[in-house]
User: Fold this.
Amino acid sequence: MQLQRLLSYTRKAVDEYQMIEDGDHIAVGISGGKDSLTLLYALHGLKRFYPKKFELSAITVDLGFEDFDLTPIRELCKEMEIPYTIVKSDIYNILFNIRKESNPCSLCAKMRKGALNEAIKAAGCNKVAYAHHKDDIVETMLLSLLFEGRFHSFSPRTYLDRMDLTVIRPMMFVDEMDVIGFKNKYDLPVVKSKCPVDGYTKRQYAKELVRQLNTEHPGAKERMFRAILNGDIKGWPERILQTR
Assistant:
């Protein structure tokens, strides 16, 4: 995927769901993976021409894994002139050595998000951009149906009143395969996850299920995504279709 195409998808999401306003300071949560680095490129590119002016900061919560070298990402942010903060934490030690959690994902996400939100507020940001793409949104809907009995998925824009912070998802129209193509084309400095349970989650199950459904019924993923957009899901903002 070319950068121009990524910027087109990103602007579509930002415009249709009113994600960015003049004067915003947006934090990009950087995990080190392909998705968050693609998002960083997308918002950095959008910043150059978008009519509403905004600032960017990048933040990584270091969970405490050994040999998790973030130097390539630090160099990328320096090249892009984006302030980069690494938040050191003891989350890995707490989950795997002290508590010995057999299913650590939910607690890990909660602790990581808490550390990230603190850093976001300390940096003076009023918004945080998450790198969830189209596949994530469809997979989340399936997980919600299968395990919660409700039709729900990530909202494009969510205001967290307790934190006075708005979450946005500018890559919601981007397919995961396009993210992979972008990573390969632009040689993104991905730092591989050291998590011992990476790839053995319910989300991985949902990912494989979506892939199977789309193989057996071509176009199924797109139809599920369209159902989400048109599903009048509680908490989702109004979608304003662009005519340009």
Summary: The chain has a mean pLDDT of 92.
